[in-house]
Structures are given as C-alpha cells and as structure tokens.
Amino acid sequence: MRIDRSRLHDTVLAGVVAVASVALYALYGPDRLQAEGIPVEGMRHPDVFGALLLVAASAPVAVRRRWPLSALCAGLVPETLLNGLGYGTGMSSLAGIVLLYSVASYRGLAIALAGLLLSLVTYLAGAVSSPVRVGSASEYVVTAVVLVAVWGAGRSLRLRRAYLEELKDRAARLERAHAADTRAARAEERSRIARELHDVVAHHVSVMTVQAAAARRVLASDPDLAREALSAIEHTGRLAMTEMRNIVGVLRTDTRADARAELGPQPGVRDLPSLVEQMREAGLPTRLRVEGEPVVLPAGVDLAAYRLVQEGLTNSLRHAGAGAEAVVTIRYEPYELDVRVEDDGKGAAQEMELSSPSGHGLVGIRERVALYGGILNIGPLPGGGFEVRARLPLKDGQ
C-alpha cells in the first residue's frame, strides 16, 4: 500500500506541535510567570480542558498542505476560546504560526493575504477580549510582527518554488525543442543522402547499361572493342562503388553526438571534364563550353550544378537516340550561374520520360534548384532536341 509521505510528515508535525504546546502550557502557568517577574493578571491555571483545546488547535496541522486556509480557520477557533477563557495568549501560537506559514506557502497571494488578515484580526480580538492583562502592550506588537514575518517567509518560499518550477519547465521545453531540431536535421541529412544515392546510381547504372549493350553487339565481330567496353564498365562500376561507399558511410556515423555528419568532398563544376569524357566513352559525343570568368562557387551550388549536368547527360544517353550529340554550357554571370545541357536527339521521348510519375531524376533536379532559389527549364528545343537548363543565383558574384 502506497503511503503519502507528505501527509505522514504533516501528521507527525501536528503531533510534535501538540506535545510542545501542551508542555509549554503546563510549564508556564501563572505562578511561574509571576515568579519570573512577568505580571499576569486573570490567567487561569492549567487544566485538562485547556490542554484539549491546545490539541484541537494543533490537529489541523495534519492537513495544512491539502486545505491550508480551512486548517487555519479550524485552528483559530480553539485558539480564540483559549484567549477568551483566560488561559493566556500565546499558548497555541505554535500551531497558528505553522498554519499561517502553510497558507502563505501553498496558496495564491489573495488567499495568503486573507489568511494573514484573519490571523491578525483574531489575535487582536482575542487579546482585547481576554481577561488576562499583561504587563506591557509591546507583547502584542511583537506577536503581530512575528506573524507578518512568518507570512513573508512562506511567500518567499512559494515564489522560489514557482521560480524553480519555471526553470524546470523551460529546461524541458528547450530539451524538447532540441530533440525536435535534431530529428529534423537527421531527416534532412537522410533525404540529402537519398538524393545523392539516386543521382550516383542512376547515372552510373545508365552508363554501364549502354556500355554493356555496346559490348554485346560487337562481342562476336570485334572482341577488342568489346573488351574495351567491358573495361569501361568495370571502371564505371568501381567509380559508382566508391561514391556510394562515401555517401553510405555517413549513415554509420554516430548520430547520438549532437553534430551533423557531413559528406566527404563532393564533385563540382571542376569535375565536369571527367564527366564529359566518361559520357564520350559511353557512346554519347559530348562537348563542354565554359563562358565568362569562373568564380569560386558555394559548395551547395557547385554540387547542384554538377548533379544537374550529370542527370541531363544521363537522360540524353538513355533517350536521345543513336547519333545524338550533347553540349554542356556553363556560363558565369555577375549574379547568376547558368547551367545548360542540350542535345539534338528525340526531345519528345525525353520529355515523356522526365514527366512520368517515376521520373525521380526530375524531382531531384527541381528540389536542388528550388533549394538555392534558382529557375529550372526542362523541355524540347524548337529546332529539335532537348534541353535541361537551370539559372542559379549567386550572392555578390559568388
């Protein structure tokens, strides 16, 4: 059976307050006070009824946290009787102090002020109506000051408790926000990895497929040419495995550390000559033109331009048809990078392929270009052929 520790502690405290109050009541009777030079007139001698009233005044301490104001009111009733019957003032002050402190500590400001006002009024009314006459009025003032000080201590504890709760709540909110940011960063990283994997696999597999088809056609008539095609397939496969190994290696990074794993060195515009040479070996005559004064590109724009050219050339290789040629144009403008891939193949067939629901390459290109605020145009050319063109903005010429 589960025990409410706070209620148990309050019950024990009520017993301790009752015992202490009865002990003070029994020890400091009128005779002893007179012997110590304290003039007290009209005070009754200790008896059982007075002790019972003290116990009744201390009993509400057991529920001081659950019903603090009600407990204070219940404790003030026997205290008022003690004062009114002449048992002296201050005999039940221990219970009253504890209950007033509880109201100030566990309730709002309005209720706490009501409790303080009730305690002061009850004490002053009992002191005025009591038949006991003390030697000096300063005792009443000291008691009132003590009540206000106890009330202030309770309010201070409540404010500190509220401040600590606010700090805990703020820390919890920050922790939840940090966890949400971490999850979003991981999701974004995985989306980027998936996009890179698609581009790498689609390009290299397309090149290998074309080279394998060429090797099959010349296997019987020209074994040396077939051997060269197979060597190119092997080389392309190794390149694909190397790129995929670099990208997938990010997934093995310990994501428990609060740092985003970054991919290794990624290809860019500087690697376009080797990409064009690879497409030539695969059977697509390709030319590269660079116009304008080259500048250092941001890493993201650099990679996006490379992937766009890679996807455009892969599309031309697969769908432009036999005898088609491709031209890659990189134009550096003051505030813009113009990337264009053109071929003179079957534009309608290519457009149908890129616009199909399974055209993940087009989706990836659109995402990359949109990410950097660029403009993308994909479609057939007026005089025949197909074009993939993107205009990527550059800030301050970079």
From TrEMBL:
Q: Does the keyword Coiled coil apply?
A: yes
- Transmembrane parts of this sequence: 12-28, 84-103, 109-128, 140-157
Q: Which residues form the Histidine kinase domain?
A: 307-396
> Which CDD domains does this UniProt record tie to the protein?
HATPase_UhpB-NarQ-NarX-like
Give the record's keywords alphabetically.
Answer: ATP-binding, Coiled coil, Kinase, Membrane, Nucleotide-binding, Phosphoprotein, Transferase, Transmembrane, Transmembrane helix, Two-component regulatory system
Reaction it catalyzes: ATP + protein L-histidine = ADP + protein N-phospho-L-histidine
Q: What is its EC number?
A: 2.7.13.3
Q: Which GO terms describe its cellular component?
A: membrane
Q: Which domain of life is it from?
A: Bacteria
The residues forming a coiled coil are 157-184
- GO molecular-function terms, A-Z: ATP binding; phosphorelay sensor kinase activity; protein dimerization activity
Key word Lipid biosynthesis present: no
The name this protein carries in UniProt is: histidine kinase
